[in-house]
Write a structure and sequence with these properties.
By secondary structure, the protein is α/β, with parallel strands linked by helices. It is built from seven helices and six strands. It has helices at 19-30, 51-57, 61-72, 89-99, 124-136, 152-155, 166-186, and strands at 5-11, 35-39, 75-79, 110-116, 140-141, 147-149. Strands 1, 2, 3, 4, 5 and 6 form a six-stranded parallel sheet that branches. Strand 1, helix 1 (19-30) and strand 2 form a beta-alpha-beta unit. The chain is globular and about 50 Å long. The protein starts with a strand and ends with a helix.
Length: 190
């Protein structure tokens, strides 16, 4: 049996009732046996990136810890909503902070993206912009299948926030299985 892979799950939303946070919490139950998924620490308290702040004070402890969690992981899944047709500001800020590090944590790191949103595009524009940002810092992006949960209010239980849409769950399982294979192609554990 292959060694279990450590996968960090980053949620791009800070909202308690977020569909994306709910999706991120449910991923471990759909992951293949070879993937151990764990949540990333929140980036809620990261200061807004400012090169002067970095030069004067260095990287904040929370940013260093977040970067180290990414470095330790065999792969990363980012589950994020779309804000104004793009990446939520807090998530983009967190990526901007760690992108300035000498030992870039996203470099050569397999990354899968997921999103859930109320509309017909389901966060696809945010995923497109994440792909651009992560490509610029040499991440290895998983291609297909893409997980874009459209019309989220109809697919998540109103009270429990559990994803109840069978087609979406099947797609997520397919993505996680494919992501497992991608990580193993790039991991020393393979």
């Amino acid at each position: 049996m292959p060694e279990q892979l450590d996968v960090l799950v980053i949620c791009g939303s800070l909202r308690k009732g977020s569909y994306n946070a709910a999706l991120a919490r449910m991923l471990p139950q759909w992951a293949p046996a070879g993937l151990a998924l764990r949540p990333a620490a929140s980036f809620a308290n990261f200061p807004i990136y400012n090169a002067d702040l970095q030069t004067t004070n260095g990287f904040p402890d929370e940013v260093n810890a977040w970067a180290e969690a990414i470095r330790r992981a065999d792969g990363v899944i980012i589950v994020s909503p779309e804000y104004n047709w793009s990446i939520p500001g807090g998530l983009k800020n967190a990526i901007d902070w760690v992108s300035r590090m000498k030992e870039q944590p996203f470099k050569d790191k397999p990354i899968a993206l997921q999103s859930a949103a109320g509309g017909i595009l389901g966060g696809s524009r945010a995923q497109y912009h994440l792909r651009q940002s992560l490509t610029s810092i040499d991440a290895i992006l998983f291609g297909r299948p893409e997980v874009i949960v459209t019309f989220a209010p109809q697919k998540f239980d109103e009270k429990t926030l559990e994803l109840k849409d069978a087609a979406a769950i099947d797609l997520i399982k397919q993505q996680l299985a494919g992501f497992d294979k991608l990580i193993r192609r790039h991991s020393p554990k393979a």
